[in-house]
Batch of 2 targets.
Target 1
Amino acid sequence: MLNRRFLLWLFLMSLFPSYVLGNQEISKDESKSIQDIVQIVERSIRAEAEKGFARRGAHAKAHGCVKAQFRVLPLPNELSLGMFSEVREYPAWIRFSNGADKVQDDSAGDGRGMAIKLMHVDRSPSGTQDFVMLNHPTFFVKNAADYVEFQKAIATDSPIKFFFPDPNPLHFRLHELGIVMAIRSKKVNNPLDIQYWSTTPYRFGVTAMKFSTRPCNRPTPALATDTSSANYLRQNMQEHLDRDDACFDFMIQLRKRATEMPVEDPTIEWSEKDSPFITVAKITIPAQRFDTPEQQKFCEDLAFSPWHAIPEHEPLGGINRVRKAVYEASSRIRQDLNRAFERESAGF
Ligand code: HEM
């Protein structure tokens, strides 16, 4: 049954390549921009690693990695595809994080990440299906070339230049600035209590999808009040999971319109009026103690990527194409450096 669906999908791909590719448009300078970004991320990881430990080039601070179950629900035919074609349960790891490339207090305005890794996924080259999300429906950069501009502005210690590159108002990036301000001003007490979005699109058979997780209707037993501590998000997550399970609905949103639901620009939100999110799986995070030194080390070693995916859910669009090379380089470099540090310290 599964193979028949997969063959049908391949057949349709060959018939309608441009639609199947979700109208991807690859500019001729993109691969150069991607190389530049990989170098920038590598330099930043190496510079931070001089403090004795190599962290991720983004989302450096983890609140914790927790064990979870991802249960695919019975679905109508049109949704029963790829990872959602079979009613079954996957064991999963979920890493919750802050967005910055440095470890900072949780009180600093920042995006929050939720990265899910489904295990034992035979048809994915990595053996896992990863769903990587942020706590906002849109990303603040349109494409690879803009991301290079953003990094150049940061390198001169003046990120604001990305939004106001010169005095010409036509070049201002006000839409992007609005997204950054919305992300940075969100008040989060507990990473288990908020909604997350993929922001970028992925294949869903012959069309495309975005995905999102929303907490199920259960109040958090431990209400975070002490936001003065540097790691209050971790503490509140642990307090919650000391007492109770947590749960999320995993939802997908299908691409129903070509122009209004672009594939190449994740700064544009796909309207939920045109295509609502539909729950396709339930995530349960059982009560557990995750805040231990061993689990933290394990969490640092994990590598998530949107490209750890089965072919039916291949990442789409320029920002995802950037992420292919960047996440691979970031995880390889930090894991190599940390192994080297371990070997060095073992000598004493
Ligand atoms: C050009 C765009 C982007 C660049 C250069 C970038 C870069 C990175 C890097 C270097 C890492 C660390 C990878 C590792 O060492 O394992 C990372 C992790 C992450 N990124 Fe991105 N990213 C981009 C876009 C996005 C977007 C659009 C999202 C929205 C969902 C996102 C969400 C995350 C999350 C949640 C993590 C943490 C994954 C984990 O827990 O390990 N990123 N990113």
Target 2
Amino acid sequence: MIEVKNITKTYKAGDIKFNALNNVSFSVNDGEFVAIMGPSGSGKSTLMHILGALDSPTSGTYFLDNKNVSTLSDDELADIRRDKIGFVFQSFNLLPRTTVLRNVMLPLVYAGIHSAERENRAKNALRSAGMDEEHFHHLSNQISGGQIQRVAIARALVNNPSLILADEPTGNLDSKTGEIVIGTFQKLNEELGRTIILITHEQEIAEHADRILFIKDGILIEDRTTHQKRMAKV
Ligand SMILES: Nc1ncnc2c1ncn2[C@@H]1O[C@H](COP(=O)(O)OP(=O)(O)O)[C@@H](O)[C@H]1O
Ligand SMILES: [Mg+2]
């Protein structure tokens, strides 16, 4: 599904050039659950933006479902983001003073889905993300951190994307709530076959994935299969 070849992302500040990503290569198969780990500033979010077709590399190629993403037009990129990819951003970007249900329905407005169908799909996405029905009509600024996370996950699911990209989705949660949220990703992967790429700096969270990529100073330094995956294969 994903093939990243020799990707470099260079930022310039005046005369100074800085490689946020340096010659990174890896591939991800359909249905894999991959965690990306690395210290703050190591290039994780930069990589996620490239994988999500929100940004392009300075050099190197990125193939998504055998399409060379770097050669696509803005319209084609927008179509890919709308149809194939679900994002859970580091800041959740929920609309305040708007109900949970409406927040999840919003991406479908842009996708041109009519309203009865929007509501139906949004409710299903909320259920898949483990949100209680009683909270569907609460305002998004009146729910807890763990619930906000679930709404953000539901919103990423509502387009039925084959690829889910999540940037530190458990970052601000206590460890118990974090485990529940990661359980939601695991279910989406195991039961619905979604491909998941999740950034985290917590080892315990990363161990729920099949595979962990370690990034340091923009370089991919390790790519290993987790215990979780090895157990599943036995
Ligand atoms: N738009 C940008 N312009 C210049 N430098 C950036 C930009 N975005 C990120 N960086 C720098 O690139 C490096 C990697 O950032 P980032 O990908 O956000 O790291 P991480 O998500 O691992 O914390 C950091 O040093 C950061 O300051
Ligand atoms: Mg980041």
